[in-house]
C-alpha cells in the first residue's frame, strides 16, 4: 500500500467510524472496505484508483481509527447535541503526499474540541517523534452534521499550519525521491526545498446512509488548497490535493 493510500485511509475510516458510532454507544468495532480515487498534485502522477479493507475500534476511552490511536481524557454525553468539550491524546502515522514518495513517520499530540447543536470546533497539535524532520503541525477546523432518517451529511473546513521542517519534509523533493520519478531514465521531479512555514486550507464532505443498525455506505470527498510556497515547487503542477472515496461499513 503506497503512502497516499495509507494517509487517506486514516481520514476516510475515521469518518466511517464516527458515523457508525452514532448508531449506538461504545464500545464499537467497525470493519469495511474503501475505494479511493486520488488526484496527486505532483507532475506525472495523475489520478489513481485503489481499494482496500480497514478495521476500527471505538471504546469508552481508547479508540483506533485507521492509523490513529487515541485516548479520551473527557467522557462524552449520550446526546451529541449537548454542549461539551472533548480532549484526546493521539498518536498517528504520517505519510508523504504523492504515490511515489513513500515515507512513513509518526506524530504524537493532542486534539481539543467544542461540540454542540452549532456543530464542532476543533484544534489539534502534532509533533514528529521519529527524529526524521522534528516538525510540528497545528490545525483548526469546523464541521456541522445534518441528520435525516437514515442519511447523515457532514461538511467541514480546516486550516493547517506546518512548520518549515515539516513543510520541507512533506512538499520538498530530495535526491532520493527525485531518483524514483524517472521517465526514459530521466528524472521528472526537480530538487526542491522549503525554508518557510506554510498554511494549507481544506474542505471535506462526508455523506453516510445507514442501511440498518449495522450496515452503512458512504461517499467522501476531501480537497486541500496548497500554500503558494508549496506550489512554488516546480514538481507540483496542481494547486490542490484531491481525494474522493466510497465505502461500506459493518459495525458490531
- Beta-strand residue fraction: over 45%
Mean pLDDT: 85
Biggest sheet details: 12 strands, antiparallel, barrel
Count of individual helical segments: 4
Broad shape: globular
Q: How far from one another are the termini?
A: 27 Å
What structural category characterises the helix and strand content? mainly beta
In which range does the helix fraction lie? 10-25%
Provide the gyration radius in Å: 18 Å
**What's the count of strands?**
15
Strand arrangement, largest sheet? 1-2-3-4-5-6-7-8-10-13-14-15
The secondary-structure element order is HEEEEEEEEEEHHEEEEHE
Runs in which pLDDT lies below 50 for 5 or more consecutive residues are: 1-7, 17-24
Describe the structure concisely for a colleague.
The chain is mainly beta.
Question: Would you mind describing this structure in some detail?
Answer:
The chain is mostly beta strands. It contains 4 helices and 15 strands. The strands form 2 sheets. Strands 1-2-3-4-5-6-7-8-10-13-14-15 form a 12-stranded antiparallel β-barrel. The two termini are 27 Å apart.
How do the strands and helices of this protein lay out in sequence?
Layout: H1 3-21, E1 28-39, E2 47-58, E3 62-65, E4 68-72, E5 84-95, E6 104-116, E7 119-128, E8 136-143, E9 146-147, E10 151-162, H2 164-171, H3 175-180, E11 182-183, E12 186-187, E13 198-210, E14 215-225, H4 228-231, E15 240-251
Amino acid at each position: 500500500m503506497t503512502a497516499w493510500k495509507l494517509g487517506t485511509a486514516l481520514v476516510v475510516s475515521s469518518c466511517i467510524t464516527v458515523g457508525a458510532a452514532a448508531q449506538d454507544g461504545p464500545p464499537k468495532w467497525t470493519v469495511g472496505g474503501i475505494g479511493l480515487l486520488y488526484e496527486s498534485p505532483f507532475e506525472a502522477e495523475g489520478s489513481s484508483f485503489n481499494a482496500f479493507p480497514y478495521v476500527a475500534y471505538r471504546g469508552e476511552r481508547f479508540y483506533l481509527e485507521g492509523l490513529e490511536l487515541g485516548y479520551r481524557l473527557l467522557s462524552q454525553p449520550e446526546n451529541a447535541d449537548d454542549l461539551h468539550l472533548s480532549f484526546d491524546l493521539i498518536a498517528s502515522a504520517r505519510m508523504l503526499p504523492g504515490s511515489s514518495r513513500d515515507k512513513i513517520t509518526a506524530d504524537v499530540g493532542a486534539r481539543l474540541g467544542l461540540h454542540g447543536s452549532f456543530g464542532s470546533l476543533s484544534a489539534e497539535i502534532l509533533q514528529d517523534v521519529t527524529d526524521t524532520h522534528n516538525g510540528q503541525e497545528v490545525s483548526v477546523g469546523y464541521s456541522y452534521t445534518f441528520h435525516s432518517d437514515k442519511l447523515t451529511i457532514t461538511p467541514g473546513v480546516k486550516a493547517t499550519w506546518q512548520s518549515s521542517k515539516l513543510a520541507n519534509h512533506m512538499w520538498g523533493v530530495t535526491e532520493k525521491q527525485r531518483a524514483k520519478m524517472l521517465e526514459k531514465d530521466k528524472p521528472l521531479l526537480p530538487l526542491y526545498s522549503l525554508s518557510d512555514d506554510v498554511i494549507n486550507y481544506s474542505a471535506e464532505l462526508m455523506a453516510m446512509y445507514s442501511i440498518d443498525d449495522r450496515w452503512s455506505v458512504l461517499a467522501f470527498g476531501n480537497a486541500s488548497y496548497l500554500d503558494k510556497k508549496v506550489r512554488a515547487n516546480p514538481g507540483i503542477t496542481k494547486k490542490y490535493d484531491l481525494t474522493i472515496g466510497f465505502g461500506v461499513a459493518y459495525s458490531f
